Amino acid sequence: MKDHSADPLDAFRDLLGAAHVQTGEAAARFATDWTGKWHAAPLAVLRPANTGEVAACVRLAAEHALAIVPVGGNTGLVGGTANRGALMISLERMAAIRAIRPEAGIAVVEAGAILSDIHAAASEHDLIFPLTFGARGSARVGGFLSTNAGGSNVVRYGSTRGLCLGLEVVLADGCVLDLMSELRKDNSGYDLRDLFIGAEGTLGIITAAVLRLSPRPRHHAAALAAVESLPAALRLLRRLQAASEGAVEAFEYMPRSYMAALARHRPDLRQPFALHDHAVMIDLGGLSRPLDDVLEAALAEAAEAGEVLDAMVAQNEAQRAHIWEMREAAAEITFTRLPIVDSDVALPLDGVAGFIAEMETRLADLDPGAETLIVAHLGDGNIHLTVYPTRDAADHLDAIREMVEAVCVARGGSISAEHGIGLSKLATMSRRKDPVALDVMRAIKAALDPENRMNPGKVIPEG
Amino acid sequence: MKDHSADPLDAFRDLLGAAHVQTGEAAARFATDWTGKWHAAPLAVLRPANTGEVAACVRLAAEHALAIVPVGGNTGLVGGTANRGALMISLERMAAIRAIRPEAGIAVVEAGAILSDIHAAASEHDLIFPLTFGARGSARVGGFLSTNAGGSNVVRYGSTRGLCLGLEVVLADGCVLDLMSELRKDNSGYDLRDLFIGAEGTLGIITAAVLRLSPRPRHHAAALAAVESLPAALRLLRRLQAASEGAVEAFEYMPRSYMAALARHRPDLRQPFALHDHAVMIDLGGLSRPLDDVLEAALAEAAEAGEVLDAMVAQNEAQRAHIWEMREAAAEITFTRLPIVDSDVALPLDGVAGFIAEMETRLADLDPGAETLIVAHLGDGNIHLTVYPTRDAADHLDAIREMVEAVCVARGGSISAEHGIGLSKLATMSRRKDPVALDVMRAIKAALDPENRMNPGKVIPEG
């Protein structure tokens, strides 16, 4: 072994070339994430070109007892890439879409491939990779798999977990785990793939993946509808699912709080009807038949039942895009003021209305002037709840956060539906996750990363 | 602690009552599994009544350094419950369907609940639990989850893994892991659920589960069709998926070898047309609309393209049941003679035809007189291939088995699609699974079951 005691980074420069070991100004692009809450001050950002170089970086890091933090598009929301003095491994040079295989219905991609590039590549074959969310132009494969990112069409296509058939992972000891299955079914031993998906880089670095593609719907039918209540919204969803043979691609709950904030911040996005207490955004995708009639008939039936109060059905693609824009403005209109307590909870489908009602009652006790903003992937029971308290004291924000968690967990909910844990929810994990489950996670982490060098301190709270 | 040195089973009798610690004749019902290949000679069969008793059994077993083998309906095919001198824990007394919650779309069940009982309970609410296979009248929740059992409608509803939202597991140390989530999305730490699903009882004992239900299709359309080739069958599948909006519930490949065996063994099951080289069984399930027209139109288009050579569309439910019976006779017509080399492989969808062609060529070299029987869940790329060699020598059977594995793995396939590993495929795992993956499995097994007492010797070959 060479003597790198002078500067441990020299070994990495020898390995990758000096241009791909970034420090100072060049490494500063990851210094602050886009929420503004989380910071990274890495020793260096490494830019390996292939899986072999990633593995070599991991082995070198072990020799120098350095921690490793993988980074993709850095669009996460939970501080998953925050660090001080770690080696960040950026997958950005490993962005190839190696193959689209239409007959097999798969894409083989490197971990640095950008989500919207995968969309474009699939589209050339009249296929889709269904996962989509606002940050699709920046988010990379390794990141959306490591966080098991959600999005707006999980209701039809399932979570990211279900869209990934195979993985390649560099482990803490520098070995390469080859799980690059292209199969719909594989029962050859433990399901390691799903262990690495959602592990936020704490068990290894995802370097490549096999993704499942779906036929592209040829016909879309979208609407914005004011509904009488949350249960009425869920009944409308079931009505639409039955009438469209499960073709509901998005069913997004946008109540008064959301539509009012949208009106304030995005007056350019004209709203088709006056404010109601409850509204939903609907998109149907038909493979072989137009679904406008199905959508209009379901809305008419629901209106007759008193469940739908007003509705605007998109008459063309521009109107459909307009409706989507109203939904996708969520990130931009949410993080507009401080103090803020944001959450990403999931409830059983029959527990959403009760959660919101109890949360609002208890919030009125804690902070009568606090405002809330809610937008939800209603078909998945996934609620993005933002509270704007009237006071910025840390204990006050904590009390609100704890109340939201308590109401959620008491109703069988999860304190992280799709954003993950990172650093931001460690205390929540301590308080709310089954202690036996935490012990099992710790045992697995210790077994696969005994020196605790893979994204240390994330996901699992200290025991 | 009492002195149980005289008979370690006394402690279990104290715990469960003597009637629920079965030995001798009473325990003999698990002595031979239904393949006839695998045998169990347990020290006793324990019949706990609830999760607390399961946990107490596991702790007592630890005190006495006894191995534990959980058993459900014992309908597995890979020797997963075979043992000598272990404590078998039967979940048969924990058979309750605790709740069906239609608004949430879930069933909460105990691990001993029988699959067909879950079907019946869901049906009362106009819902289905989609998983189904021949042994549904005996198979129990703990078994079908521990093996991640497949079946005929994975093509529409996904694998068992995807149909399970939550789990309760008794771990090797007797702790109870509560993962009883009712949620569509949950990103709160590592995906432990999927680690226990498919682990065949080697990491813990599943005691309860939350299952995902789906709306019951109101309209079915089924057919048997002779097709020109395997690629023509896959084109017909895509045609049907598009035309029906993804309503294909089953698409089963039944080539000449299968239909001929069916004619020999089940002459009562009248076949609607003469033998062709390739046939498929089709079932569509429509939530809101009859799909007979869709099916007939797709078959007519395919016939015009020369891809479908003959077809019989079921005109009523009796004819549909008849078509299903032809498919479900598979187990009964497969295990009719010896010697036999059976396999359960999965291929990428675009690799099925190539696999079969190469396998047949190489088999003709190894054993020119050997016959094959093939039936496949074609939509999943899952092929049940049975070879009947002309000689019974162990090395000859091994050579055939190795050849099938080699052709499968070289084409990106898996050596176990849906039946699991158990004891029957340990050698195959050694030879064919990524060695790094095996090491990761061993590390996880050692971390969660350090004394190797949970179904020891299954799934993971010795290092």
What key attributes describe this structure?
Uridine Diphospho-n-acetylenolpyruvylglucosamine Reductase, domain 2; alpha+beta; 7-stranded antiparallel sheet; Alpha-Beta Plaits; 463 residues; homodimer
Question: Helicity of chain A, in percent?
Answer: 25-40%
**Total beta-strand segments of chain A:** 20
What is the average per-residue confidence, as pLDDT of chain A, rounded to a whole number?
A: 95
Percent of residues of chain A in beta strands?
15-25%
Query: How would you describe the shape of chain A?
Result: globular
Biggest interface, chains and residues, is: A-B, 90 and 90 residues
For the record, give the distance between the C-alpha atoms at the N and C termini of chain A, rounded to a whole number: 37 Å
CATH T-level topology of the largest domain in chain A? Uridine Diphospho-n-acetylenolpyruvylglucosamine Reductase, domain 3
Biggest sheet strand line-up of chain A: 17-14-16-15-19-20-18
> Can you identify the CATH class of the largest domain in chain A?
Alpha Beta
Number of helices of chain A: 17
- Oligomer classification: homodimer
Integer count of domains of chain A: 4
Structural class of chain A: alpha+beta
Organism (chains A, B): Jannaschia ovalis
Protein name (chains A, B): FAD-binding oxidoreductase
Keywords (chains A, B): FAD, Flavoprotein
Domain FAD-binding PCMH-type (chains A, B): 38-216
Provide a concise account of the structure shown.
With 463 residues, chain A is an alpha+beta fold.
